[in-house]
Amino acid sequence: MTRSRVVITGLGVITPVGNDVDTYWKSLLEGRSGVGRITKFDTAGMEVTIGAEVRGFDPARHIPPKDIKRLDPFCHYALAAAEQAVRDAGLDFSREDRFRCGAIVASGIGGLHELQEQHRRYLEKGPSRTSPFFVPKMMLNAAAGNIAIRFGLGGPNWGVASACASSNHAMASAFRTIQYGDADVMITGGAEAALTYLSLSGFANMGALSRRNDAPERASRPFDRQRDGFVLGEGAAILVFERLEHALARGARIYAEVLGAGNSDDAHHITAPDPDGSGGACAMAQALKDAGLRPEQISYINAHGTSTPLNDKIETAAIKKAFGAHASRIPISSTKSMIGHLLGAAGAVEMVATVLSIRDNVVHPTINLEDPDPECDLDYVPGRRREVRVDYALSNALGFGGHNSTLVVGRFPPP
Fold this sequence. Notes:
Peroxisomal Thiolase, Chain A, domain 1; ten-stranded mixed β-sheet
């Protein structure tokens, strides 16, 4: 069976450093942090009071007023990013076979705002006051479903949840769906709105979050010796994946080609990665094999890079296992150093950065990397962006549950 080639023709983002692609990318290249004190709820008495909030976002610019209250914020972000991506791709779905167009969109948690609110209402007012919109607002697949309704997409459609690897798994699924001939266009990515008092306290109590409350902009510091946890973020990124022949036939602008995907599991611990990095290395090796590339052909890695003590040194070990001697020659950076950790949306926002690195031949920095950990001894592009030719790039997403998912993208046309 001949597999279809898959390209990326549209991008859209809602992030802590910008609510459109140009602002987001400029912020990353300038090394601008989106982390600050939380303003969306009262953090009095909490051990962690910082986060990477989406700011200046008005759902009414993207969603009909009657629908805003029927959707959780994670769906607000997903629909806004999807609107951007579809517009960027120049797609008019009224001209398409709707059963050849679909959506696979991830979220690590789903409608947590709604879950928290309806629990409060139940306790205060009783079961009769629970909203009839509770379930459709909360369910994780609501992002994919509402995107399908918005654009009339009758093709493959589902949600994905695999913690911090969720949107890489969603994009890998969209990639395969087109490769195997089941669709021409797939809307894919991830959305998360997990900045609530419930999730913040939960992550804090398990010791996952940075407690650098007095210096929020310096709190996310991947690969630095002084890192003490990740910063919880929110937002969404949506990409348009398209069958190459379909994109060429309509004269679409092509950002990059999706070349390979690899997935594995550590099978070690529900939250801690396997210390030897073999699971992450396996996903990277699978993705390279799927793409038909040698390790030395990769010119950039967008790391998972969470700023937790375990993840960063183990991801370093995994990259060394997968790339051997070439590992020390590859520029690697962590988008999370600026936008925090968007959980199920992380892989998608990082894929947008990876694709733009190919377009512009520049990689964004890892900020706050001031005192490198000796166990994180690769080239993590500290402090400032770097001009570098990027023909083939790899993006990692590693999640609780031991999930590892890696995607490889390349320049189009190929070099």
